[in-house]
Write a structure and sequence with these properties.
With 259 residues, the protein is α/β, with parallel strands linked by helices. The chain contains 8 helices and 8 strands; from the N terminus they run αααβββαβαβαββαβα. Strand 5, helix 6 and strand 6 form a beta-alpha-beta unit. InterPro entries: AB_hydrolase_5 (IPR029059), AB_hydrolase_fold (IPR029058).
Length: 259
């Protein structure tokens, strides 16, 4: 009768191999659980508030085109030839920014709201033209984002690619743009923001061009830059969502279309 290499090995070797096998299976199982948990967490998004989304869909001045990974808002009236590629905040459905940019689009600027890879902008690897090519009639582009989306937007703000950067309750992760002289930048934040706090915004301004337009909305919280309800860790707003959106529009409309 023949014996296998496993059977002929000393007992301690067989025990060692069994232990390694058990450890290997356990590690794979733990990794599978961790990946599954991460995917569940990343896809547990903040959805758009139905009433705000319905108001945009019913607005005759705006056309909303939801393509799954992007939401495109176009003016139905006169087009100013400008566009904004906007990256959603972490785990926020792009539809939640339709209400934010309703007036911007109604005034003539096309807005492409991006749903980043796995709903996390820091994982997004598509080039900017993957979004700008969706609206070839637009001649001049800005890029921007909310929260984590704004951090990623800073990396797209290359000279010659875009001429403006829009940061909503956000900031750049480094000072690569600080010395830029051909990029218009606006930073809009809220005084009640518990995530991108006023102190964090103030500290980040040194990373932006000296010509940056800084707008602070008194009483606005982090989540009010979208329309998706309450966000854990945020501050308590002292103004209504409608008042916050009005202030955001008052800042962005003239910035995006200075003519």
């Amino acid at each position: 009768m023949t014996t296998s290499p496993e059977q002929s090995a000393p007992g301690w070797v067989r025990r060692h191999r069994r232990v390694l096998t058990i450890i290997g299976i356990s590690v794979v199982a733990l990794l599978a659980i961790a990946v599954s948990a991460f995917l569940w967490w990343a896809n547990d998004t903040y959805p758009a508030e139905p009433a705000g989304l319905a108001a945009v869909q019913e607005d005759p001045r705006v056309d909303l085109d939801d393509r799954g990974d992007v939401v495109i808002l176009r003016p139905t009236g006169e087009d100013d030839g400008r566009g904004l590629v906007f990256l959603s905040g972490a785990k926020v459905d792009p539809q939640a920014y339709a209400a934010t940019f309703q007036e911007v689009a109604a005034e003539g600027t096309t807005v492409v709201i991006v749903k980043p890879f796995l709903n996390l902008a820091i994982l997004e690897r598509r080039p900017l033209d993957a979004f700008t090519d969706l609206v070839p009639e637009v001649g001049s582009w800005a890029v921007g984002g909310h929260s984590m989306g704004g951090v990623k937007a800073c990396s797209y703000a290359e000279p010659g690619e875009v001429d403006a950067l829009v940061l909503l309750a956000s900031y750049c992760s480094g000072d690569a743009l600080a010395s830029s002289t051909d990029l218009d930048v606006i930073s809009v934040s809220g005084t009640q923001d518990g995530l991108a706090t006023p102190a964090k915004i103030d500290d980040s301004l040194a990373d932006l061009p000296a010509s940056t337009t800084v707008v602070r909305i008194d009483g606005a919280s982090h989540a009010q830059f979208g329309d998706y309800g309450v966000q854990p860790g945020d501050g308590t707003p002292t103004i209504s969502d409608e008042e916050a959106r009005e202030s955001i529009s008052e800042a962005l409309v003239p910035f995006l279309d200075p003519s």
